[in-house]
Amino acid sequence: MTAVRATVRTVLGDIPPDGLGVTDAHDHLFLRSPLLAGQELDDVAAARAELGAFRAAGGEAVVQWTPYGMGRRAAELPGVSRAAGVHVVCATGLHQAGHYAEETLAALRGRLAEVFVAELTKGIGTSGVRAGLVKVAGGFHALDAHARWTMTAAAEAHHATGAPVAVHLEQGTAAPDVLDLLCGALEVPPHRVILGHLNRFPDPVLHQQAARTGCWLAFDGPSRAQHATDWRMPEAVRALADAGFGGQLLLGGDTVTAGARSVNGGPGMPYLLRRVRPRLAAGLGEELTDRVLRENPARAFAVEWA
């Protein structure tokens, strides 16, 4: 019998984990939401240029967390990836209810897990591009009915495929509730859960409580200047590494508006490597920083696909 090998599912096909390279573990090339009207990421040429700038800064892979119904433009992703020479992993999943029209959500009732599984295994729409993770979202210090619905569907999709489940923590909160639901009641293994935006709620006790479960800890959004907690991110990462959790850390840029792109004068994707990486290396050392950018995402997003 042939052994099943873990692979990372990119928009150009499955690759071995060690082929991923230096990775922005949470970002966006395309994104559209009524909550960000007028700030859409929907320009293909700009996406290609931004990915090229990330490549020029030393980047080799980007994980796009844009989920279902938020302008992923899956059909454009292979060309953008190929032109820039950067691996791209895209997501299925569902964000908070406020990002969708009610009729969109109504059409998904009773079939959400089925949609997630189809996008992971068959492809997104007619694009032929398969998603490599499921992205869902919690609420501010709590989980509402919508979050529980989407996370239940995400867990079903994980059990059917093995895909990791990445969670937007609203302002970095509700991690215990997310873990209780996903890893407790829904039995998703903690090493298949990625908690996003922990930098927005720099509580070292909460961070270590989450880390002890074995989940992934993503500090994703250092390029967003409106987050007053960003200056504490290196301190929080160092504390987790010192406590023995360096093997569970991920870093990302989370560029969500056109104005935040480097090609439009913002920090964008390159900021992660141009500014954040050397700052972390000064505190963590080059070896651990490189591990967080290379080895950790290779393990976090590698799946023995069912």
TrEMBL record:
Modified residues (N6-carboxylysine): K135
Coiled-coil residues: none
Record key words, sorted: Hydrolase, Metal-binding
Entry's family note: Belongs to the metallo-dependent hydrolases superfamily. Phosphotriesterase family.
The protein's name: Phosphotriesterase
Origin species: Streptomyces andamanensis
